[in-house]
Amino acid sequence: MSTFPVAKIRQDFPILQQTVYNRPLVYFDNAASTQKPIQVIRAISGYYETDNCNIHRGVHFLSQRATEAYEETRNLVQRYINAASSREIIFTKGATESINLVASSFGKRYISAGDEVLISIMEHHSNIVPWQQMCLERGAKVKFIPIHDNGELDMEAFRSMVNEKTKILSITHVSNVLGTINPLKEMIAYAHSFGIPVLVDGAQAISHLGADVHDLDCDFYCFSGHKMYAPMGIGVLYGKEKYLEAMPPYQSGGEMIKEVRIDRTTFNELPFKFEAGTPNVEGVYGLHAAILYLQELGMENIRNYEQEILDYAIDKLTAMGDIRFIGTAKEKTSLISFLIGSIHPYDAGVIIDKMGIAVRTGHHCAMPLIEYYKIPATVRASFAFYNTFEEIDSMVDAINRVKQMFG
Ligand SMILES: Cc1ncc(COP(=O)(O)O)c(C=O)c1O
Hints:
Bound molecules: pyridoxal-5'-phosphate
CATH superfamily of the largest domain: Type I PLP-dependent aspartate aminotransferase-like (Major domain)
Largest sheet: 7 strands, mixed
Shape: globular
Strand content: 15-25%
Low-confidence stretches: none
Oligomer: single chain
Helix content: 40-55%
Number of helices: 14
C-alpha cells in the first residue's frame, strides 16, 4: 500500500472538499487544468494585499518589492527546469502563447519557401495551428510524424522524415490524449545531428515528470502554469540564448524596448525583449508558490504515486471487459483515454458527471489524432497526486451505471 500522504495533501486543496450532485467531487480532469493548493491561492491574494504594483523601473518601495519577487521567480523557474541562465526564461500566457511566439519569431528569422517543419500526429492543436499559419505565410510545409496503434511514435518514420529541408522539430513531451511519454532524448540527438533545433511542448509533462532542459538538450521548452497547480494566464518559454538572441521580438510595446525615437527603436536585452507590456505579476507570484509546493512534495514521490494510481485504474478498467483503451504506450503518464463498448463518449460523460466525477469527453484539441483512430471522441480521466484509489473505484461504479443505461 502506498505511503504517499494523500489525505494530508488533499487538505491543501479547498475545492476538493465540496460535494457535487450530493456526492464528493472526484476531479479527474487534471490534464485540462489542475486545482490550486491554498499556498498558491494565498500567494495571489497576498500579492494584492501587500505588493500590488507594476514592476520594473519603478523606484518606489512596492515596485521594487514586486520586481524582486517577479525576477526571483524567473530564477526559481531557471533552477526548476535546469536552464543555464535566467535570460533564457520568458514569461508568457501559457504553452499556446509560447509556441506562437516561437513559430512566429523563429519562422521570420529561419524559415523560407520550400522549408519543412516536423511535428507529430499526436500534437495538441496549439502545437499544430501556429506552425500551419506560419508555414502558410512563408510557403513552407508542416509534416506529421505518424504513430503506431499503441500510441507510440513511429521512430523509423521520424528518422526517414528528417532531411535538409527540415528547419525545426516541434514535439510534445507527453500526449494529452494518449499519455505517451515521447523518447525525446533520442529524437533531439537525432535532430541535432542534422543541425535542427527542437521545441518541446511540456504542457502535459511538467506536473508529472518535471523537466530538465539541460539533460534533454532541447532548444525550446514550454509549459502552462495552470496545468502545474499555478494560476491561469501564466506560462513559460525556455529558449537557448543563441536562438532567442537571433530571433526578432514577437510583440512590441513597453518593456521590450531599450530606446524609442520617432524614427527608430532599439530592443531590450533578453528576456525582456520577448515580454512586451505589463506582465501577469499575480500569476508569477502564484507560479512561485506552485513550484515550491511541487519541490516540497518531490517530483519523484509524485511520479511514483501517480504511477500506482494509473496502474490501479488500468487494472480495474481492464477487468470490466469491454473497455477499449486509446493509448497503451509502455511509457505513460497518469491519464487514460477510453471507450466503453459502443457507447458514445458524450453519453458516458454526462452520466459519469451526474455521479460527481469530472472526466473530459471529446477530441481533446487533438483532432488529427482522433481521426487517426477513426473514433468520434474519447472519455479521458487524467489523474493528479491528490487523487485516490477510492476515487478510481467510484469511477468504475459510474462506468457500470453507464453500461446499465446504454449497454
Ligand atoms: C499537450 C498540450 N499542449 C499545449 C496545450 C495548451 O495549453 P494552454 O491552453 O494552457 O496554452 C495543452 C492544453 O491542454 C496540451 O495538453
